[in-house]
Amino acid sequence: MKSTAQNNSSQEGQRVLPRHLGIIMDGNGRWAKKRGLPRSMGHRAGAANFKKIIRYCNSIGIECLTMYAFSTENWKRPKEEVGALMVLFKQYLKDALKEFLKENVQVRFIGDSSVFDEGLQTLIRKNEELGRTKNGMILNIAMNYGGRAEIVQAARSLAKQVQAGTRKPEEITEEALSQQLYTAGQPDLDLVIRPSGEYRISNFMLWQSAYAEYIVMDILWPDFTPENLEWALDEYANRNRRFGGV
């Protein structure tokens, strides 16, 4: 655990980027409603922006990017909307296999993908296989993801190791639990951006965001631009991260 303050501007005066950036994509439905469109059209607009922001983050040197696409709680939405989202996910992943072929991005999926139909699971596997041939930015796509569920599965994994005699209870440390998470081996979140103006964590990477900086922007996700991202990165760079110190 970090215990010393970190100034986000380097000695040379260059802006320091977050090593791990998280974005809670929010506001697709409201974007569509404002325009008199069905919510599914908002999700399509959000998916198009998703691609644009991924490419931009990769181009400026973000090391890890996690995009919150579908939470464990999103299943509570109307059946028609969830169905439309599943169709959209499939189309996006098909496009990604072609469009991101030349992009040096390691695509990974975090969350419980076992609940998706076989077609979607196959596309997830193919995108991850393609990602393993790359060595650039790590892109985590959070689908059927929940921070609490992730911690529970990590705790169960450690409990099984203790039960099997491969780990002692006193060997269960923060680092040991971190290694059981979907993001094992990746740095913790440095910055979380939430467009849409909602001041909620929404069960997003609860463990990894323990010392993350948060920026909420009153912009709906489909309208979120690289310029908005640059503003947030400048704001992050000007913050003094103390990690519990002084």
Structure report:
- With 246 residues, the protein is of the alpha/beta class.
- The model is unreliable at 1-5 (pLDDT under 50).
- It has helices spanning 28-34, 39-60, 79-99, 118-131, 147-164, 174-178, 226-237, and strands at residues 6-7, 20-24, 64-71, 105-110, 137-145, 191-195, 213-217, 240-241.
- Strand 4 (105-110), helix 4 (118-131) and strand 5 form a beta-alpha-beta unit.
- The chain contains 7 helices and 8 strands, in the order ββααβαβαβααββαβ.
- The strands form 2 sheets. It has a 6-stranded parallel beta sheet, with helices on both faces.
- Helices cover 40% and strands 17% of the residues.
- The two termini are 15 Å apart.
- Helix 2 (39-60) packs parallel to helix 3 (79-99).
List the helices and strands and how they pair.
Layout: E1 6-7, E2 20-24, H1 28-34, H2 39-60, E3 64-71, H3 79-99, E4 105-110, H4 118-131, E5 137-145, H5 147-164, H6 174-178, E6 191-195, E7 213-217, H7 226-237, E8 240-241
Parallel strand pairs: 2-3, 2-6, 3-5, 4-5, 6-7
Antiparallel strand pairs: 1-8
Helix pairs in contact: 1-2, 2-3, 3-4
